[in-house]
Amino acid sequence: MPENADQLPDTVFEEVKAEIIRAHSKYGKFNSTHEAYAVILEETEELWETIRKKEPKQRTYEEAIQVAAATIALIIDLLH
Contact 14/68 with Cβ under 8 angstroms? Predict the structure, then answer.
């Protein structure tokens, strides 16, 4: 999780980018928009669980990065 306020956006964007690359190398690209939606929904539900259970900010941050990465991966796929 970024600490320096001036670097927050860059750090977050870099972490989202790294998560997209990690997920693509592990699972490949989405097979369809339906699959993308299912992944985004699953990641969002996991994020909600960390919020609901009041888990540490770091864990919630990690889940939020995964939601962002899945959503941006869908956007990228739609452009190809």
Answer: no
Alpha-carbon torsion angle 75, 31, 21, 78, nearest 10: -20
Integer Cα distance of 29 and 52 in angstroms: 30
If you average pLDDT over residues 18-28, what whole number do you get? 96
Tell me the C-alpha distance between 26 and 12, whole Å.
21
Q: Residues 56-69: what's their mean pLDDT?
A: 97
Structure token pair of residue 72:
């941006």
How many whole angstroms separate alpha carbon 36 and alpha carbon 38? 5
Structural domain boundaries of the chain? 31-80
* Cα distance between residue 27 and residue 19, in whole Å: 12
